[in-house]
């Protein structure tokens, strides 16, 4: 069988991190060394899916490549999305038209005026901060787990399940023991 050398592609999954501010979402893709600006393509389709792809030659017969897709927020100003590649990190900045609400809005029925307790307002702020912090930490954990291979993911799931069983058993032990 005649022909040139076969070209192989090494599929990679770059580390991604979201940073959210009041009116901007920033997606950071940490790309491997050797990948240059010319190797990257960014596209957004009519359904609001942002696709980032990259291909970089490693040697004569091998290249590395990746593809990252993410849904853009509904309140994102699509025409103002910008990307910057610096020191191996691609920053995709997505401005929003209005900030995302941090907590539920509550409508008061039948009251024309009401004195609000400032401590209650502080409590709502604390709840919103706590929810935001939980979302950030959980989102980071979720992103790290998605980067792992199937075997590592199953192993992590087994560890979490074992820890959960241990907590349940400890709870049962303490509830059953006399005080």
From TrEMBL:
<dbReference type="Pfam" id="PF00011">
    <property type="entry name" value="HSP20"/>
</dbReference>
<comment type="similarity">
    <text>Belongs to the small heat shock protein (HSP20) family.</text>
</comment>
<keyword id="KW-0472">Membrane</keyword>
<dbReference type="InterPro" id="IPR008978">
    <property type="entry name" value="HSP20-like_chaperone"/>
</dbReference>
<protein>
    <submittedName>
        <fullName>17.5 kDa class I heat shock protein</fullName>
    </submittedName>
</protein>
<feature type="domain" description="SHSP">
    <location>
        <begin position="6"/>
        <end position="111"/>
    </location>
</feature>
<feature type="transmembrane region" description="Helical">
    <location>
        <begin position="150"/>
        <end position="174"/>
    </location>
</feature>
<keyword id="KW-0346">Stress response</keyword>
<dbReference type="InterPro" id="IPR002068">
    <property type="entry name" value="A-crystallin/Hsp20_dom"/>
</dbReference>
<keyword id="KW-0812">Transmembrane</keyword>
<keyword id="KW-1133">Transmembrane helix</keyword>
């Amino acid at each position: 069988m005649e022909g040139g050398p076969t070209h192989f592609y090494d599929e990679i999954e770059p580390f991604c991190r979201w940073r959210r501010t009041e009116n901007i979402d920033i997606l950071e893709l940490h790309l491997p060394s050797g990948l240059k600006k010319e190797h990257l393509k960014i596209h957004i389709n009519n359904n609001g899916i942002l696709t980032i792809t990259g291909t970089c030659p490693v040697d004569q017969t091998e290249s590395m490549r990746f593809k990252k897709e993410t849904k853009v927020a509904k309140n994102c100003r699509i025409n103002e999305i910008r990307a910057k590649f610096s020191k191996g990190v691609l920053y995709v900045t997505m401005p929003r038209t209005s900030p995302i609400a941090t907590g539920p809005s509550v409508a008061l029925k039948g009251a024309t005026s009401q004195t609000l307790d400032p401590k209650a307002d502080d409590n709502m702020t604390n709840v919103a901060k706590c929810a935001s912090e939980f979302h950030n930490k959980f989102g980071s954990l979720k992103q790290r787990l998605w980067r792992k291979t199937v075997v590592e993911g199953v192993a992590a799931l087994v560890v979490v399940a074992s820890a959960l069983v241990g907590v349940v058993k400890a709870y049962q032990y303490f509830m059953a023991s006399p005080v």
